[in-house]
Amino acid sequence: MLEFRSVRASIGIIEILRDLDFRVDASDTLALIGRNGAGKTTLLRSIMGFTRVTGEIRFDGTRLDSVPPPKRPGLGIGYSPEDRRLFSAFTVEENILLPAQAARIDGAETRRRLARVYEILPELRDMAARPAGNVSGGQGKMVALGRALMSGTRLVMLDEPFQGLAPALAQRYAAALRALRDADKTITLIITESNPALLRGFANRTLVIERGEVSEGSLEPAGTGA
């Protein structure tokens, strides 16, 4: 489904990603584990077209460099950045609907996708009319997830989604991800994290990124033998 071939990315003169070669299959839940600064965010931003890369990133065989960044969500890719990036003057529901409007999705499909968001995240329905600037940081993460689901019909990418969440809200967020997986067995999830323990028992595959290079890894604690 998603394939990296000799991908490199730099910010200024600093090389962030180095010769990445890996594949993510449909229905995978991939944990991308690495320390801060290891390249996790740059990898996701490269898929969205927000960084300049060399090499090839392919999505269902299509080279993403042939697809302008604003059109990539139309391929079924949803992205929730670490900092949420909500429009504070818009309501919660208006923020959720933005990807559908940008992709010019018709009304019937937009309503179907919004209903799916509210089924997975029913608390967002209760907050729908609230200005996004009035929600807490944790609630903002839920809104950002709902927005990513509006375009992410095939691939959803979540950058450090558990960072800063109180334990109760982190459990609720994890439950929403399980509900998404239960509702759609074919969807692919890529979740970045600094703390592997937060994704243990959820991800079916792990990649470790270190100094811009990736390798297969494990979410099991060191020394367990698992």
What does this structure look like?
This protein has one domain (2-216): P-loop containing nucleotide triphosphate hydrolases (Rossmann fold, 3-Layer(aba) Sandwich). Helices cover 31% and strands 27% of the residues. It contains 6 helices and 10 strands; from the N terminus they run βββαβββααααβαβββ. The protein has a 6-stranded mixed beta sheet with strand order 6-7-8-3-9-10, with helices on both faces. Strands 2-1-4-5 form a 4-stranded antiparallel beta sheet, with helices on one face. Helix 6 links the parallel strand 7 (155-159) and strand 8. Helix 2 (92-102) runs parallel beside helix 5. The chain is globular and about 45 Å long.
Total E-strand runs: 10
End-to-end gap: 28 Å
Q: Give me the number of helical elements.
A: 6
Which sequence of strands runs across the widest sheet?
6-7-8-3-9-10
Calculate the mean pLDDT score and round it. Answer: 92
What structural class is derived from the secondary structure elements? alpha/beta
Whole-number total of structural domains: 1
Uncertain segments: none
Strand content: 25-35%
CATH class bucket: Alpha Beta
CATH superfamily: P-loop containing nucleotide triphosphate hydrolases
Shape: globular
According to CATH, the fold-level topology is Rossmann fold
Largest sheet: 6 strands, mixed
Rg, Cα atoms, Å: 17 Å
Helix fraction bin: 25-40%
* CATH-scheme architecture: 3-Layer(aba) Sandwich
User: Helix-strand pattern, N to C?
Assistant: EEEHEEEHHHHEHEEE
